[in-house]
Each structure stands twice: as C-alpha cells, then as structure tokens.
Amino acid sequence: MREEFPGSVKIVVADRTGNVCSNPDCRAHTSGPQADPARALNLGVVAHITAASPGGPRYDPALTSEQRSSAENAIWLCQNCAKLVDNDPTQFTVDLMRDWKRRVEEEALCHIGKTSPFTNQQRYSLFNDLQKYVKVHMRPVIPLEHEQADFMIVEWSPDNIWVNKDSGHHVQVPATWVRKVYASTDSAPAILLLDGRLQWISGRGPSVQGVWRLLPDAPSPGPDGQFGIERIVSMYDPEATELQEQFGCQWVPCGVVSYALTQGMHVFYGADGRYFRMMEDNRIQLSPTP
Q1: Ramachandran region of residue 171, left (φ > 0), alpha (ψ -120 to 50) or beta?
Q2: If DSSP codes are grouped into helix, strand and coil, which group holds residue 92?
Q3: What is the distance between the alpha carbons of residues 17 and 110, in angstroms, rounded to a whole number?
Q4: What is the pLDDT of residue 271?
Q5: How far apart are CA 196 and CA 140, in angstroms?
Q6: N or C: which end of the chain has fewer CB within 10 A?
Q7: Is the pLDDT of residue 244 over 90?
C-alpha cells in the first residue's frame, strides 16, 4: 500500500522552503501567477525521502505508516528534481536529501522579513562591476582566518550572486544579504559586506566534507568575534565529550588559541555554526588538522 501525504503536510512542507526547490543546485521557484488573475501556477512536488511503498527508491521498512506519510519524510522539489532523485537513489541518498531539507529551511528562515537595501536599478549598478570569474572578498567570513581569502564569482544576477571557494564549495548569496558593495580598485578586489555571516561548518566523520553556509547572526566586532559566535557549554556537555572522543578535540585556553591555530589546530564549528567555549575556565575546543 502506498502511503501518500495528506494535504496539510504538502502545504506546510512547501511553505517551510519559501516555495523553492530544496536541491541546492536548483532552487527553482515553484509557484507563481497564471494569466488568469484568479489562479496560480505550481511546479513543486512533495517527494518522499524514503519511498511511499515497498520497491520504491530509498524504501525503509522500519518506518510506520504514520512516519512514512509525515512531514519529516517529505521534501519539496521542483518536478525535474523530483524525477531526478527517484531515478538515481544511489546518488541521492536519504542522508543527502535530509541535508537538502535542513539547508533550504534554514535559508528560508534567514530570508523571512528581510528586504534588499537596493532597488533593481541600484543592484544592476552595484553588481555590474562583479564580473564572472573574478575574485571578491566576503565579509564577515568565519573563521576569521578566511576573511582575507578570495571567493570567485561564478554567476550573478540582480537577485543572486554565486561564488565558490578553492575548496569547490558553491555558495548562493541572495541580493537581500548584501548590505554594501565596495568597488574594486587596481590593487584590491571588490568587497561584499553581508547582512549576517558566511560560515564554515565543520564536517562530521572522515568521509564528511565541511560546507560554507550563510547564517543570519553576525559575529561581534573586535576580539570577541574573531572566532565567530560561541556556544557556552560545560566540560561535561555530552556533545562536547563526543567531539573530543571522536575527533581528538581538546580544550585550549583562549589566550593561546591564535598560537594553536598556527600549529595545525582548528576551531571546530558545529552544525549551528558556533564553536564550543567552556563555561568553567574560558577555554575553546579545538580539533587537529583533518
């Protein structure tokens, strides 16, 4: 028996993405107006992360009927991407699709209530200097050691700028996130000042790569924000203990963190983009070079 999603689940799953495809390489808008002023177009599909019935892509027999038809097992995709993920379940795994779902919802939350500081005409004027395949500085970028590192523009429009790092990670920066643009000079590239931060999120496990992600809360100016945004934890915090055991992380006094970074250590950033700082004696948890 095929477990379908109820109408209420379809609505909430679409709304939680802002009605865009969850595939980070797509992000197509899935709704818009028809010629008839009383009707709208919808090109989105609520797809199953694990299949609706036995024999389907990524089917999980351990799920109950309620779990299989719940919002947690649903992902919003455009019609093209929905067919793509079901035709190649080996490449498009459950973990990958859950990561897509989490990321698109984080992005949608960050965009709620934000308006661009520029009109379309101003965007064209400001962004016209941002040519493809040239490098730009992004600020703020966390960890701070990447602040002076360049990102390359791979595409741009008045609504979005796509950049990548030499690590190969592509980042889509919506125009609403760009607070100010400092034009390039003969001696320096352009600078994009962000409303929020571009954050490196540490990978978990030997086969998991880290990613760049836009997050809404900017770090504090000055020394307090040099490593980003902290999460105060106890030495006995279960997640901190797990990190220490799994990755060889260790607690280092704040005063020697800068030196430790020159010796091959790295600040470890969790899935929320925050680093661990011990509440008892002001130490930061670092991890060795991966």
Answers
A1: beta
A2: coil
A3: 11
A4: 78
A5: 7
A6: N
A7: no
Q: Residue 197: CA atoms inside 13 Å, Cβ hemisphere, count?
A: 23
For residue 247, give both structure tokens. 């990755």
Rounded CA separation 275/231 (Å): 6
Nearest to 103 by CA among 36, 199, 190, 233: 199
Q: Amino acid letter at 40?
A: A
Q: Pick 82 or 203 by higher pLDDT.
A: 82
Distance separating alpha carbons of residues 228 and 224, to the nearest angstrom: 8
Instruction: Tell me the pLDDT tens digit for each residue of 204-225.
Output: 655 456 788 888 888 887 777 8
| Domain residue limits, the chain | 7-111, 120-215, 228-288
SS3 of 72, please? helix
Say how far apart CA 191 and CA 178 lie, in whole Å.
Answer: 10
Predicted TM-score (pTM) above 0.90? no
Q: What is the reported pLDDT for 207?
A: 46
What is the rounded distance in angstroms from the CA atom of residue 290 to the CA atom of residue 281? 27
How does the average pLDDT of the chain come out, rounded? 83
State the CB neighbour count (10 A cutoff) for residue 13.
23
